[in-house]
Fold this protein.
Amino acid sequence: MTNTALDALTHAQRERLAFIDFNLQYFGQVARADLIQRFKTGLAACTRDFSSYKELAPQNLVLSHTTKTYHRLESYKPLFKHDAESILSALCRGFGDGLSSGIQPSSYCQDATRLIHPNSEVIATLMRAITSKLAIECQYTSLTTGTTLKALVPHSIVNNGKRWHVRAFDRSNQEFRDFVATRIECPKILQSLIKPEEYADKDTQWHTIYDIILAPHPQLKYPKAIELDYEMDNGQLKLEIRAALLGYLLRQWNVDCTEKGTLNCNIYQLHLSNKSQLNLKDIEIAPGYEK
């Protein structure tokens, strides 16, 4: 496939072909109904789009006449470049027009510098496994055990504020855990059926929702500044958060989790007000955690 062939298409055509490309790479399949629903095109136009895509990348997809769905082939090569950061953000919001370009810096609006960047091919494999409810086999490197072969059943991808994590059932430990996406190498989807205890609905920590209350640190001289920062109501910020993500949030936002707010208020400007209502196991990585 040459850039000239893509350049000859209209922007609307490129959007539709990019949508096909995205679905194949990240979900492993795409149907004409998906294209019609997303772009409100007619059946004839939709058929032409798939024909154009297949002409440009015949090695990428095959039509299943039984399901009327196009499936991703092992010989798949991306027709469009999908930037991992853009894709992950798009997946969180709900993917838009199918086109995902690299993040363009602005001279008057700057985002925080990111030091960790996930691999788009790894994310694509994980998303296909999640969508199809299948397990993966991969090499995973941790700080405690080094590189080991893992069999994981992923069900969600999460940004903890610093890096992307995969929530998955770990077959070696027989429990749901978090795995850093950048530490996953050579993932391969396993086609065998997963067991009932490996399904996402069995992840208790993921499905437990806490109502947490954050307040300005009690040692702050001018707490109103923090109330304005977080748009607090009567000095409180109330949030609903999954138990599996709670520790990350408290650590990312430097929330003092001691009973009386004894940490340095210049560093920890927020205080967890309703710690007694939480399972302490879910905040083990939070600042000021005490058993």
In short: Residues 96-106 have pLDDT under 50 and may be disordered.
